[in-house]
């Protein structure tokens, strides 16, 4: 299956192909603008955005409140560094801590940086609070995880594309099957400082663990004095119909990113109690751009949107409609549908087409989505989509499966 490329699109695609490393394999679409859940390409064609920046655009493209916050801050000050305090920093930290129900937050920029922060904090907590012998700390993680692309993080990836050829690898991680509480429990010993998992595994294909898994992880971590770190970079901030996908389970540390920056600036953070984040001392960790005024101003507007509860509510109701419609296609070209809220992992019958072919065919019908492994697609539209938007996406998918 090939996709026709227009005369305006072609030169942009060729230029991108010529001048960048080939670390992505984008669909052949060149986007020029976006509003809400829809984007427009250089030829004026409109597409429903069902990837939403890998969930960085939970509030859609150019949400007016977020754009207004960014504009206002651009006209005042954008960067101070953490060498000085600025007037957006304290309010942002207090408001994010309140959203998370935690004492302290530490802002970074990308999701991977926040995961690295969580790992460092957990190790230091292990040595200074738990009493693990120096240099012996272990962290239990899940197979098929996705936590980012740094050398330490890919050291505990089980995806050969992410990991092979990038060794030597950082030691100190134990990998157990996702969703298997017995395996996780057996992997914990006196050296274990943390369990780091995604409450729902996104890149793996939107894998939802068994219902007793997260409560079980919580209990085991409490009993064994191990930190439960929930990587909510993709699952959090409304995507699943609640602010955090781990809810009602409360982890010891949240790792947040993506949607925290409102699709405008990269903003990530970890949030935890004073006992945990309080282990850091000046000079031990930081980032030039972490917690900058523009990031804090936009993230404060994001938190205000989340505090209305409207996005979580829409993710629940319109998400139920999405799942109902997708489930009706199981046996008619789909072999399985998983997920929660406005987040779905869809397995296409591999005999019909690959995930990539399905995405190209959806694109031709005005819907942008992204494949993950093999014949699996992810649908993760902005959280304010309507049931009619969802119908556009599912009708297009249905047509693609029948073609
Ligand atoms: C669960 C999870 N953690 C961390 C990351 C890394 O975030 P970033 O790409 O901003 O470094 C991602 C990115 O997809 C993710 O899904």
Automatic annotation (TrEMBL):
Protein name per the record: ornithine aminotransferase
Annotated family: Belongs to the class-III pyridoxal-phosphate-dependent aminotransferase family.
The protein's Enzyme Commission number: 2.6.1.13
Pfam family, one: Aminotran_3
NCBIfam families listed in its UniProt record: Orn_aminotrans (TIGR01885)
Gene3D superfamilies linked to this entry: Aspartate Aminotransferase, domain 1, Type I PLP-dependent aspartate aminotransferase-like (Major domain)
InterPro entries referenced in this protein's UniProt entry, alphabetically: Aminotrans_3, Aminotrans_3_PPA_site, Class-III_PLP-dep_AT, Orn_aminotrans, PyrdxlP-dep_Trfase, PyrdxlP-dep_Trfase_major, PyrdxlP-dep_Trfase_small
Pathway assigned in UniProt: Amino-acid biosynthesis; L-proline biosynthesis; L-glutamate 5-semialdehyde from L-ornithine: step 1/1
Cofactor: pyridoxal 5'-phosphate
Keyword Transferase belongs to the record: yes
Protein keywords: Aminotransferase, Pyridoxal phosphate, Transferase
């Amino acid at each position: 299956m090939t996709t026709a490329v227009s005369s305006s699109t072609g030169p942009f695609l060729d230029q991108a192909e010529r001048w960048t490393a080939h670390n992505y394999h984008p669909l052949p679409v060149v986007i020029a603008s976006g509003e809400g859940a829809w984007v427009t390409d250089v030829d004026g064609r409109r597409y429903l955005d069902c990837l939403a920046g890998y969930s960085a655009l939970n509030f859609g493209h150019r949400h007016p409140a977020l754009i207004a916050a960014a504009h206002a801050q651009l006209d005042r000050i954008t960067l101070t560094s953490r060498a000085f305090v600025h007037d957006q920093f304290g309010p942002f930290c207090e408001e994010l801590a309140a959203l998370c129900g935690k004492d302290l937050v530490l802002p970074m920029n990308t999701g991977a940086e926040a995961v690295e922060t969580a790992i460092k904090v957990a190790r230091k907590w292990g040595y200074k609070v738990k009493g693990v012998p120096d240099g012996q700390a272990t962290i239990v993680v899940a197979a098929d995880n996705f936590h980012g692309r740094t050398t330490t993080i890919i050291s505990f990836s089980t995806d050969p594309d992410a990991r092979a050829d990038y060794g030597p690898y950082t030691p100190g991680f134990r990998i157990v099957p996702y969703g298997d509480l017995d395996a996780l429990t057996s992997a914990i010993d006196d050296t274990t400082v943390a369990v780091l998992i995604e409450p729902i595994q996104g890149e793996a294909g939107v894998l939802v663990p068994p219902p007793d898994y997260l409560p079980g992880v919580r209990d085991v971590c409490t009993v064994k004095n191990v930190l439960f770190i929930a990587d909510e970079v993709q699952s959090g901030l409304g995507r699943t119909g609640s602010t955090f996908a781990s809810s009602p389970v409360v982890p010891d540390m949240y790792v947040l990113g993506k949607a925290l920056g409102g699709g405008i600036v990269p903003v990530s953070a970890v949030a935890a109690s004073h006992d945990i984040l309080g282990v850091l001392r000046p000079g031990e960790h930081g980032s030039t751009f972490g917690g900058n005024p523009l990031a804090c101003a936009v993230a404060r507007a994001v938190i205000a949107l989340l505090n209305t509860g409207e996005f979580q509510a829409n993710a629940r109701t319109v998400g139920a409609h999405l799942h109902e419609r997708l489930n009706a296609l199981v046996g008619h070209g789909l072999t399985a549908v998983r997920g929660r809220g406005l987040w779905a992992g869809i397995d296409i019958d591999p005999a019909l087409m690959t995930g990539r072919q399905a995405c190209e065919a959806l694109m031709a019908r005005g819907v942008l989505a992204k494949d993950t492994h093999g014949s699996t697609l992810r649908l993760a539209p902005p959280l304010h989509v309507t049931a009619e938007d969802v119908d556009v996406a599912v009708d297009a998918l249905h047509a693609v499966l029948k073609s």
